[in-house]
Amino acid sequence: MPQEPVLSRHRLTTRFRYALVVLWVLPACILLISLLVARGFTPHLADPRLLLPLVVMALPALYIWREGVDVLADGLRIRIHGWRYRPFEELDNWYLDTRPNRRLLTVWDQDGRKMLECHAAHLTDLPTLLATLKDKLRYRNWPN
């Protein structure tokens, strides 16, 4: 089955993604650099007991890099707190809380469960995402 084309991607802004990835990878880099300075390049650096924890420490950086929302032709691929695909037929409504201290985007499914809840500032190109949601789902018009 061919992969469906992504119409738009909405992620953390690039500088924040880079900063978070560096923060997650930095402890492993500091450990490797300190081992290299203390002992030089030795075969012990290729030991799986060292490399496996370093790789596991880097996995959150990969997740942070890909975290966000992808808009596809017939649904949303949500990569926030887990990865899941939701077709527009399963989704019911959405709401953007525009109060200055909130700015929270929420999308619910047909059963009233929250499928997506994130701060609007955490997504790039928010107007494009909102236009897609407005076109595909009904807006839950709560007063501010």
Structural commentary:
The protein has helices spanning 14-39, 48-66, 126-136, and strands at 6-11, 68-72, 75-79, 83-87, 91-97, 104-109, 114-119, 138-139. It is of the alpha+beta class. The chain has two domains: 9-66, no CATH class; 70-139. Helix 1 runs antiparallel to helix 2.
Features:
single chain, 144 residues, alpha+beta, 4-stranded antiparallel beta sheet, 4-stranded mixed beta sheet, 3 helices, 8 strands, 29% strand
As a whole number of angstroms, the C-alpha radius of gyration is 20 Å
Tell me about the largest β-sheet: 4 strands, antiparallel
Percent of residues in β-strands: 25-35%
Note poorly predicted spans: none
Net shape: elongated
Q: Would you tell me the structural class of the helices and strands?
A: alpha+beta
Mean pLDDT: 88
- Number of distinct beta strands: 8
Write the topology of this structure:
Blueprint: E1 6-11, H1 14-39, H2 48-66, E2 68-72, E3 75-79, E4 83-87, E5 91-97, E6 104-109, E7 114-119, H3 126-136, E8 138-139
Parallel strand pairs: 5-8
Antiparallel strand pairs: 1-2, 2-3, 3-4, 5-6, 6-7
